[in-house]
Structure formats: C-alpha cells, structure tokens
Amino acid sequence: MKSATSRLTRLDLNLIVVLRELLRERNVTRAAKRVGVSQPAASAALSRLRRHFDDDLLVRRGGRYELSALAFQLVDQVEAVCEGVERLIATGSRFDPATTRREFEIVMSDFVVTVLGERLTGLLNADAPGARLNVVMVREALAANIGHTIQVADCVVSQPTTRFLVPEMCSALLFEDRWVCVVARDNPRFGGEVADLDELTGATWVVPYHDDATFPSVVPVSRQFARLGVRPRVAVRVDSYHAVPYLVASTDHVALMQQRLAAACARYLPLRILESPRPLEPLEIRLWWHVRHDADPGHRWFRGLVGRAARDCAARSAVTNGSGSSRAPAAPPPR
C-alpha cells in the first residue's frame, strides 16, 4: 500500500489550484484566466485530474458544464486544502498588500453588501490591487452550518446567534442598525411617522427568508414579528433582503427592513419609512473569524480593511442622517 507521502509526491499540487477554479467556475476558459494559464493548459490539467480521480468532474449538459457527484463532494475539501496551504505559506512571513495576489473570501448578506460593499471593494482595489475578493452571499442555513463555514471562509459578517458563541470563533463589532417598517409612498393605510399596530396586524407582508413551518423562526426578522405580537399574513416571500423594497414599492404590502437598507432604497424607490410601534431588537452586525487566523498577517490586514470600510460607512451615514447614531469600533479587537 502506498503511503500518503508517496501519493503526494506523485501528484502535481499545482493541479489542486486548477481544480479549485474549475469547481468554482465550471468553465475551463474562466478557470484558466483565474489561475493565469492558457486555456489549453487548463484543459490539459482537467484531463490529468479526470485520470487521477477516475471521474469526469465537469459534465457537459447542453452548452454548459455541471459538476459530477464526486465533484460536488470535492468542493469543500478543495477549498479547505487551498486555504490551509495559503495559511501555511503566509505564516511567519511579511504580508505586503501592494504586491499580494491572495484571494479573500467573505460571507455576508445582500443587506451588508449594500452597506459595506462599495467602500470595501474600493479600499481593496486601492490598497491591494492584485488581491481578489470572493463574496459568498449568505444563505438561510448559515447559523446551522457556521462551524463548517467559518473554517472555509476568511470571515463571516452577521448578527450574533447562539450557534456563533463557540470558543473557536472570534468577532468584532462592525456597525449597528435598527428595524423600521416600509410601505409604498402612496399607501393610504398608513399615516404619520409611526406605524399603527392594528394596521400592521391586518396588513399583508413581504417577508425575507420566511418559514411557514416555524414561528417565530431563527431568522432575525421573524423574531421582530414576535416582539410586535404580529403573525404576518405573508403575500410575498423572498430569499433576499435587498429585493424586499422592490416588492413593496407598488403594492399595499408592508415590510420590516434594516434602516440603512431602507434609507438607501428610498432614494430611488417610492417608499415611506415608518417607525415601529413597539421596541424591536437592535441590529448588531459583527465580523466573525476562526481563531486559527489570528497568527496570519494577511488575514489581520484584511480584517482591518473590513473594519475601515465599516467606520467609513458609519461616518458617511452619520453625516447623511445629521446625527452620530451609527457606531463602529475604532479598530477590530483581537477576540
């Protein structure tokens, strides 16, 4: 039986990098561009990988490629291996953002992208023009899978939940927000600046990540309905925060939204923002990472960059709103 060391010496480990991009892109040409090789070289690498795994990996369906069953199993393993090798190489070395070609992966919702996305990518482009950013949009099952996600991704941006409170996870406050009610500008059911609780009870709702089977569910907006004492009559369910205002603007529906997202969308959609008739949970958005990243200088730099983006956005929001109600820490603490 061949030892693990023997098998490693017989495999060109550069193929692992190509495999990661092939599984991500499901396209040989795009994978070649991401790795920085020619398309024929990427095709040759795919052929070698197919021989090694005795599997097609990428299966043509019509005009595009899909992952084989084995390839689906390899996705998370390859990401973890590449991330581990990158950490190994970076450990103890000097990190230079101006010359790095490292890829950073961050998991966040479309709400957080609206708040931080422009500033984060602007800072990254200015300070580390050769670096790449892989933004993974958060899914409903994030909390349930956080133990795995936090080991694969560099960072997660999310509200805290009980599943996040484990010793291996570190966090830093990025910014705070609050929940507001949103209706169409010409909705005659709601008057004044504070939503009427009876009107909310009788209204139809647009609800992100709604779960018909469980109420309240673990989704943050569901807990706010419980605080209001409202069991929503759901007219539209959508797996997105940013889509909510578009589905409210020309209807008589109502929605609960994050104030920053609502304010951004109200600049170009016919919306009115109303205060809640009862106190709702404050929104505390934190940056989360695995403790093993603490010794990685590149990772520390990236965390600092996310913190800078949050502080810049908080300052901009305070100026826009004419107050200093949005808070962000001076710098992300180590734990």
Shape: globular
Largest sheet: 5 strands, mixed
CA-CA gap between termini: 45 Å
How many β-strands, per DSSP?
12
Low-confidence stretches: 323-335
The number of helices is 12
According to CATH, what is the topology of the largest domain?
D-Maltodextrin-Binding Protein, domain 2
Helix amount: 40-55%
Strands of the widest sheet, in order across it, are: 4-3-5-12-6
CATH architecture of the largest domain, by name, is: 3-Layer(aba) Sandwich
Number of domains: 3
The average pLDDT score comes to 84
The helix-and-strand class reads: alpha/beta
What Rg is obtained from the alpha carbons, in whole angstroms? 23 Å
CATH superfamily of the largest domain: Periplasmic binding protein-like II
* Element-level helix/strand string: HHHHEEHEHEHEEEHEHEHEHEEH
CATH class of the largest domain: Alpha Beta
Strand content: 15-25%
Domain HTH lysR-type: 11-68
Protein name: LysR family transcriptional regulator
Region (Disordered): 316-335
Keywords: DNA-binding, Transcription, Transcription regulation
